[in-house]
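Database export, one record per block. Field names are fixed; values are copied verbatim from the stored entry.
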Amino acid sequence: MWAMTNTSSLTSATPSLSLTNSVIASEVYGQPPDAEQRPGPTPLADITPNAFTGKPGSGPTEHLELIAGNDDRMNQAVFADGKLWGGVNTVVKTENGITHVGIAYFIVTPSFPSGGSLSATIAKQGYIAVNGQNVLYPSIGVNSAGNGVVGFSLVGPDFFPSAAYAPIDAVNGAGAVHVAAAGTGPDDGFSGYHFFTGGNTGRWGDYSAAVADATGTIWIGHEFIPNTPRSLLANWGTFVSHVTP
């Protein structure tokens, strides 16, 4: 955890800031795999590469792309109700089958003792996972009362890429997963096909956000596959949810 103190001096003629950090132990994190998605229509894969090269014949076959599992960077962290809230993609293994992408969340309480150094403790931590599926790219919005929502994408063998969320607080941790907008097809974009130098993994979800408004409700925005006209090279969209935690 990083903290910048004495920010009130910014209004003076001689600002004097202090940047400090504290490293604390947490639950286990593991590099997430890429995520399998539910099979469905892939018009871009079906026409690549012939539609772009003009060459006759069947050409190389593109396969249904995976969804990128990302790395250990957090999309967003928020300070609310005296605590720092954040989440990151991680590897998880649920009760059935192979490893999948899940979410590790952390709720941290900072301490600024008078004359002492910055310290922090874990108020609550845990994982969000759906058995046999993947949840990924979390962002957390929390109101002043300490009630929040984790927004993320849900994708797997049974789900086209969908917008989903779960409630969260510092006492109970994360709650049940809810689907805000069900995806209507698989991700079928250029970033996941070899012809476009994308390999077999499509880029996904690294711009998600969640924020509390003045009334205490939470707005979240996440990537999913909508039932709307697509562009030639991509078919993803953004779904915005308004949730009262």
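Remark 1: The chain has one domain: 51-243.
Remark 2: DSSP finds two helices and 16 strands in the chain.
End of record.
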